[in-house]
Here is the input.
Amino acid sequence: MTSKANTVAFQAGERNIFFHILTACNLSCRHCYINTSQHGTTTLPKETMLKWLELFADPNKKSNVIFLGGEPTMHPDLADGIAKAKELGMAVTVDSNGYLFNNLLEKTSPDLLDYLSFSLDGPDPSVNDPIRGEGVFEVCTTNMGKAVAAGYNVSVIYTVSNLNIEHLHRMIPLLQDIGVKRFFIQVIGLRGNSAKTSAGEQGWQVSPEQWLDVVPRVAIQAAEAGIHVTFPKVFLDPNEKFECAGLVTENFFIFPNGRVYRCPLCEDHPIHALEIKNETLVPNQNMRLTEDNFFQLNIEEGCVMNRLLQPDTISYDAQGKPLHRISCCLLKQEILPV
Here is the structure.
C-alpha cells in the first residue's frame, strides 16, 4: 500500500473544543500535563457539563468536541455528555487511558461517539508501563480490542519522548493486530509533570534531529500498512510561513475550574484568554496580558509561546539565528493510506 503526506492547513471557522470534565485520574503518568493548582480538582456536575456544551455549540460551524480529564470515563455522566454533544451537532471524541470506567462501551454507541482514542506509550509493557503505570498496557490493549469488536472507531495516541522514540516503529504491527485505523503521534509538552520532573539525564524531549529522522519515517511506514497517521508539524520548512492557530481558528481548552485557554502551551499559567462565569463565556479580566496578546507577535523562532515558555527547545547558530523554526503546536501533518 502507498501513502500520501500533507500538512493540514488551518481552516477559518474550524472549531475544536477540548473539554476537561474532571481532573481526577486512576493513573499517575510520569508526563501528565494536568496541573491541579491551575486546573482545579472539580468533577463537573452533569448539569454544568451539559450547559457548557451548549455554551460552545455553534450550529453554523463544524465543531469537534474532545472529552478529556484526568480520565474522562471516571465521570459517571460521560455518556450523557456524549449524547448531548451529538444532539448539538458536534463530532465527538473521548480520549481515555484505556480503563473505560462506568461501562462506557455499553452506555454509548458508535453512532454517538465518532472516535474512542486510547493513550498508549509503548508497544509492550516493558516500554509503556514504566511511563503510564504497572499493568496499564494489558488493560489498555484488551479494552481496545473490545472497542474494535463492538464497532467503535478506535485511535491510539503515542506521546513521543526520549523514553520511547526508538520503539515507535514497533507500534505498527500492534495496531494492525488490534484493528486500529488511526494513529496520533504526539510530541511531549513541557507542562504539568514533564515540566518539573526529568525522564533521565537527557530530559523528556527528543532532539530536532531525532524527531525529524524517526517520526515522519515511521508515519510513512504506518500509512503504508493501512493506518491513517497524524502528528505535529513541530518544525517549519525553511520557506514555510508561520501561522498561529489562535488567530485563524477557534480552539478552546476548557478546564473544570472555568478557565478556557486558546493555546495548550499556556496551561501551566493563569494567562487564559477566557473564563466561564455564571454560565457565560467572558474575557479574563484578572490579567493585564493574556495569551491572546502574545498571539499577535511575529518572531524569527516561529511560535512566540514556545519561545517564552519552552526556550530550551530552541537552538541557535553562532550568529544567533534559530536552527529550526517552531510551528504552532496545533499545526498537524497527515499521512493517509492510498
